[in-house]
Amino acid sequence: MDMPAYYEFCCRVKIISGHDVLERIPATLAELTARRPMIVTDKGVVGAGLINIVVNAIGNGVDIGAIADDVPPDSDLRIVNSLARLYREKGCDSLLAIGGGSVMDTAKGINIIVSEEADDLMRFSGANALKRALRPLIAIPTTAGTGSEVTLVAVIKDHEKHLKMAFISNFLLPNACVVDSRMTLTLPPAATAATGMDALSHAVEAYTCLAKNPLSDAHALAATRLISENLLKVTLNPGDKEGRLCMASAATLAGIAFGNSMVGMVHTLGHSVGSVCGVPHGACMAILLPYGLEYNMHKNGHLTAELLFPMAGAPVYAATPKEERAQTVIALIRRMNQELYEATGGRHARFFKEALDRDGREMVPKERLPDIAETALRDGSISYNPEDLDYDDFLMVMEAAWEGRPLDTGLIRKG
Amino acid sequence: MYLPERYEFFCPVKINSGNRALEHVPFELDALNARKPLVVAGKDVGERGLVGVIIDAFKDSGLAIGVYDGVPSAPDLKLIRELFNIYRDRGHDALIAIGGGSAADTAKVLNIAVSGKPEDIEGCAGENLIKKPLKPLIIVPTTAGTGYEVSKYAFFAGRDYASHFLMPNLAVIDPRMTIPEDAVTTAAAALFALTHAAEAYTCPGKNPLADAYAYTAIQLIMANLVNVIGDQRDKNGRLSLANAHAMAGCAFSNVALGVAHKLGKVMGDLCHLPQGLCMGMLLPRVLEREMSEGGYHIADLLLPLAGFDTYASTAADMKARRAVEIIHDLLKDLSAANGGAISRIWKDIQVSEDTLQDIAQRAGVNEASFDIDGCAKILREAREGR
Amino acid sequence: MKNFREVAAGKKSLKKDYVAVMMWFMGRAIQAAAAVDMAAKKEFAGMPDGFTFALSVMPNGPHMIIGKDQRGFVRYKGWDPDGNKIDLDMKIKNIEAALLLFTFQESTTLATARNRLVVDGDVAHACAVMRILDIVEVYLLPKIIAKLAVKRYSGWSFRRKYLGRVLVYVRSIFSF
Predict the structure, then answer these.
(1) What is the mean pLDDT of chain A?
(2) Are residues B344 and B208 in the same domain?
(3) How confident is the model at residue B361, as a pLDDT?
(4) Which residues of B fall within a CB distance of 8 Å from C3?
(5) Where do the domains of chain A lie?
(6) Chain A residue at shortest CA distance from C117
(7) Could you tell me which chains touch chain B, where touching means 3 or more CB pairs under 8 A?
(8) Which residues of A touch C154 (CB under 8 A)?
(9) Distance of CA B291 to the CA centre of its chain
């Protein structure tokens, strides 16, 4: 096992996980001396009836100051500012963020404004601009995917100025994250499949990209194993409580892994497809993951090969010759996508050509691929990818991922 | 893969490890909103030039630091009062402890005092009696560190402390600080950590997050311990061991203490032996007994102990047995290394039947398969090298 | 108290001087590359006029400041952050980390992976600056070092590599 010449690892979030742990929220708030939390969430969470579950579990002992339930999937500075105003008006003293990535980032943004009594959130962008603990923040993930409940980054856009600013600070980590299987029980099969593959992409990229370290590896391996064993199961059988808890734990483990080791080109391209064409993040990750492993094969194939163990289990690992393991991992991920495609009645896209929106329209028209490649050049995650990519390389990968054919290895320019 | 119905995990420790790790401390202090740390170290650390490394790391940082390098092996409350006065009068706002043992314990207990008032030291002794986060604490482990220094535990002037708030905000593992030690010290520290990691990984209250720390710790110890004992110049090996020890400390702060830990600790104290050597010797025997009681996580232990390939090629019903054998083999290798220095200590252990009963009694183990007789039996087996 | 002493903040003047000189040269080379290299030109074209970025060492320098003026020309703007409004600050956490970078023991990629660099500003622009640094390193460094410094030592044409290198060197030294 390689010890990196230098690495850092940290996850200060208290993790509370189980089938009935929402009931621990009042005690956790009390430990943080918080009395009047504001709930931050989105319409999807409300529509699925999850707010009621949380509110009931919290009981009467806690005075909920406000419920902000309309965070959009693409939140921005304007929303952060208006919710911070609400927080102040209602005299809240803490935050409960219930949802996925956008809700978490929004809650982190609100927390900066209300804790620092700031008017200009962007003054705190960059690394370590925060100097002291913020108000108590408890994260309750509902997607078993993003992992943003355990990361110290918040990305907040300013749609008016076309800026996308990153905020990085230990103080942005939630104080606690409450992972309860009830929060994901009603997630529909297609969303289950996509968010599960999102978590897998975190674990796999954390394990195979440049900032890996022994501790993030251990988190990534455990996450990969849990996802491989449970994702198809819960997609087929959404009410499987045990499977749901395994997936939720896996997402948290994968979040800790990539929060410390970062991710590579799968995310670079995925972010770009998301921002250019609006394809849900998890769906992009599912399609792109095998391509990222193929593209980087000459640099990190030995690491991809090791993933066969958590993905397929000991017997398959032992029975597969060493030099075939990496290819087998890629084939297994493609097979997972195929199985999820079948399990969701075709709603889980296997390649971009078949990604459709609600009205059945193609989401990624072929003529947008150049835009996507161009956008990818502006995404920070590329720094951590083992091999370099320029515009032509991004486009080449996107063309293959659009049609759903494996990469032509002859086209990969090896450094 | 095993997942408990319910678990909680908390580890506030950031790990910075490797080349020039110490030079990053000023940046980390800034992130913790601190700018004048008080460095606390043992006498030996100062004598071996390690304090100089820290001072050098702070050059160009613009920060002035206080350095106290006189912590004795058995510090008392008078020392805490003196350091408290320095901390307060000179405007310090963070603590840095170098090395494990009494320096780390002193820093942890001093942190209780400087985060409140000196009298708190008495009120906070015990389990979970600290109610709020303390001042920033950074631990810089040396090779002799066992991982206890980054754990939630502290022992000071006859009092035991246990609280997550005692854990450091940061553990800085720098190759310049993980200097060579003699074989006995190195082995004792590593076996102390291995015992914690293995017991965390196999205990009934295990959870996947504590497992990640334990798993990594075990892997690193297995990959490096024998090499380092044989060749103290193995710089990367020493760095890896120091990492493993810190991780083991994080893991065992999140599970209940194991039987090998409890027995080994009392045995070490009563027989004046390094606790780590006692724990290491007891570990495979404790696991064997748990195995016969159906402890099925022991089979999983084979994975970090031996790696994917050995795990995959070992028959399912043989995995647990193989795991225990590997620990026995490790102990044999350690005994043989360095001209048998460790083996002589093990051979010379003169534990009378009375002492043995005494250890079993005092260890306070109270589990179905480990009553006092059960514990005594394990100690007897270990004594006789069976 | 016995065994206690207070240690005032020291200095690492020699190391800082070395890094300052390297940054000075790098800054002028970036200005030169912006004039002669097509890829570098394209990266700068993506930045708004008046945009200023810096590479700096925490906590107090040295700095390397590059700005694009209102007419779109790229200028090395020296080492003094005072009087410059910096839109993007790429900060190396300490002088030792900077030394690893400028003695080519660690590439910008590795420094990023090892969390030794922090970016304060828009991420998209930071990506462009990273690519510009890569281009300049390939120009300035002999192949054997540049191959370690960048992920993919690109298959540049003879003309770009050698003519470009001469031009970048000449312009860096004579500053035009």
Answers:
(1) 94
(2) yes
(3) 86
(4) 43, 46, 68-70
(5) 14-183, 189-411
(6) A127
(7) A, C
(8) 415
(9) 25
Does residue B198 share a domain with residue B169?
A: no
Q: Are residues B60 and B91 in the same domain?
A: yes
pLDDT(B28) > 90: yes
Whether residue B67 and residue C96 make contact (CB cut-off 8 A), yes or no, is: no
Peptide bond into A4 cis (omega under 30): no
Under the banding of pLDDT at 50, 70 and 90, the label for residue B71 is very high
- The Cα B57–Cα B24 span in angstroms is 8
CATH code of the domain in which B32 resides? 3.40.50.1970
Q: Which CATH number is associated with domain A14-183?
A: 3.40.50.1970
Is the minimum CB–CB distance between C58 and chain B shorter than 8 Å?
yes
Is this structure's pTM higher than 0.90? yes
Whether B315 and B245 map to the same domain: the answer is: yes
Same-domain status, B45 and B127: yes
In chain A, which residue's Cα lies nearest the Cα of C97? A6
Whether C120 and chain B come into contact, CB under 8 Å, resolves to no
- What pLDDT was estimated at residue B386? 62
Across the interface, whether the CB atoms of A226 and B17 are under 8 A apart is answered no
Q: pLDDT tens digits for A99-139?
A: 988 999 999 999 999 999 888 888 888 777 887 889 999 99
B28 touches chain C (CB under 8 A): no
Q: What is the total count of domains within chain B? A: 2
- Domain stops at, among B118, B140, B173: B173
What angle, rounded to 10 degrees, do the helices at A369-376 and A265-277 form?
Answer: 130
Distance from CA of B125 to the nearest CA of A (A): 19
- B9-32: b (≥16 Cβ within 10 Å) or e: bbbbbbbbbbbbbbbbbbbbbbbb
Whether CATH 3.30.1050.10 fits C14-170? yes
**Amino acid of residue A90:** K
Give which of A150, A131, A136, A123 is closest to A216, Cα–Cα: A150
Residue A200 pLDDT > 80: yes
**CA–CA dist B192, B280 (Å, integer):** 7
Chain C residues within 8 A of A392 when measuring between CB atoms: none
CA distance A330 to C133: 34
Tell me if B314 sits within 8 A of B322, measured CB to CB.
yes
The CATH number linked to B242 is 1.20.1090.10
List all residues of chain A from 8 to 27 with a beta carbon under 8 Å from chain C: 8
- Whether residue A129 lies within 8 A of chain C, CB to CB, comes out as yes
Residues of C in contact with B64 (CB under 8 A): 6-9
| Distance in Å, alpha carbon of B16 to nearest chain C alpha carbon | 10
pLDDT in tens, B34-62: 999 999 999 888 888 899 999 999 999 99
CATH number of A189-411: 1.20.1090.10
In a domain, B75, yes or no: yes
Nearest to C97 among B20, B64, B65 (CB): B20
CA distance A378 to chain C (A): 4
Return the closest-CA partner of residue A362 out of A370, A371, A352: A352
Task: Give the domain ranges of chain C.
Answer: 14-170
CB count within 10 Å of CB B146 equals 28
> Which DSSP letter does residue B367 get?
B
Chain A residues whose CB is inside 8 A of the C89 CB are 126
| Domain region containing B45 | 14-173
Question: Do residues C169 and C161 lie in contact, with contact meaning Cβ atoms separated by under 8 Å?
Answer: no
**Smallest Cβ distance to A127: which of C119, C124, C130?**
C119
Quote the minimal CA–CA distance from C149 to chain B in Å.
18
Q: Give the max Cα distance, chain A.
A: 64
Give the largest Cα separation in chain B, rounded.
64
Nearest residue on chain A to C119, alpha-carbon basis: A126
Q: Which helix (H) or strand (E) is B95 found in, with range?
A: strand B94-98
More confident residue, A80 or C138: A80
* Cα gap B239→C19, rounded to integer Å: 29
